Amino acid sequence: MANDSDTCESLKEDLKSDQDELNALIRRAPFVTDPDERRLLAEEMSRLRQEIRELQHAISIACRPPPPPPNVSITGVEQTQATQFFKSLLSPCPDRPGQAPCVDNDIPLVAGKATVFRVYTNVLAHPTVPITALTGVLEARPAGSTGLPVGLTPYNGPQPPRLQSQISRKNVNDALNFRLPAAMCHGQVEARLNVYDALHPGESGYTSQSFLRTLSFVETATLKIRLVRIHYKNAARAMDIPAPTTADFWTTAQYTLKTYPIPGIDVVRDTVELYDGDFTSFFASAGPGAQGTTGTIFDILTNLRNAESFPGDVHYLAIIPGFPANHTGASGWAISRRQIVEVLNGPAMAQEIGHDSGFPHHAPGLRCWGSRSELSRLRLVSERQHWRVRIRRHRLRRLRSGRNGRLHELLSEPVGVAVRIPWAVEHVSERGSPRWEFRAAKSGPSDGRLFRLQQWKGQQLSARISRCRPRVASQRRGNPLCDRAAR
Fold this sequence. Notes:
- This protein is an alpha+beta fold.
- The protein is built from 9 helices and 22 strands.
- The longest helix is centred in the N-terminal third of the chain and has 28 residues, at 35-62.
- The termini are far apart.
């Protein structure tokens, strides 16, 4: 009822009415002589005095002035297990129907996986009390439970107070981060958050209003792996490299555990297997040297898969102890429930299992070729209205860019490429599905505007690629763009 002006006025009217009635009884009392009537009059006066006291107390609450705005407030809470939409600028939202932007916290939470609350705060520019450092408490319990909630403090607190305008989501410590243990992440969980000055917990003026939320967790299966640790031994190369240890595997698997929507990894079997080929290829097509007497690593995985009776959701994963000098150029490979991954290369393990589970790269028809350093050496060659992009030491990629700006094949691994093109292409798609954008710079050379090819959620590379526009040889001579394109 606090700060309700209508309630306040109604209580004041009731109080005045009771006071008027009591005063009238007091004036009448000296003239009442009948004992029974005097007794009834006294009882009525006593009742009115009690009611007046209760009304005065209610008025002191309902009619007090509104409190000043809190010096500390919670402006948003992101709940994440690795990847989450929060204040996203993507519109339309990828992998969502319609043309709407991404909704905050729209990615479901997985049961049995630790969840982090990223709590974004704000302090008044001119607080009424000094706020020196912020911390808080997260209280959580199963929805509908009457038991005491578990109280958790931020693992990165206290933090300096910041204005909302000073907070950037990309900075981990710009938010207070609370970790809800995996054991609590099942079914529905009620959560209540409070943020306060570390030196004045719970005190008025130093504490935010409570933030309430109910989380729902989706039950998913664990990732099942048949682990094969490869012992590399080749007499011709005088090499005998021990197999990676089980501890090495779990170190490698941490990236997958953190990023995949799974509660954990189950290793259904773990053995060490010998490979004695020369490792010039993953495949038998490379000849006897690659096969050795054991067969290629893919042969080893295939034989194990055929001999064992594990269900179809088990991945046969070979962890290899690093690549020899004449390796194939890729850090992993996967096909038909068989994956090969270099030890301690966590992102490669996550990527290859993802590919083998039916998840391609962002754009169709793309492969895992080329490192970021190699991508900085991209070279563009002019060919009428077609463009060719070459990654040195790797297979040729082709970008067809007509005046409608359609790309019929895209690079997978580059996170961005700067391109000079003569047409104002604003949007590029692959089969109608938006993947990349050309964004015009404010200025550029006279032969073509400067555009930047940028993938969603990507970063931009520093590579600059130019096109030799003149088609007549005499016009090309001395043109620095033509000279660069020809090199």
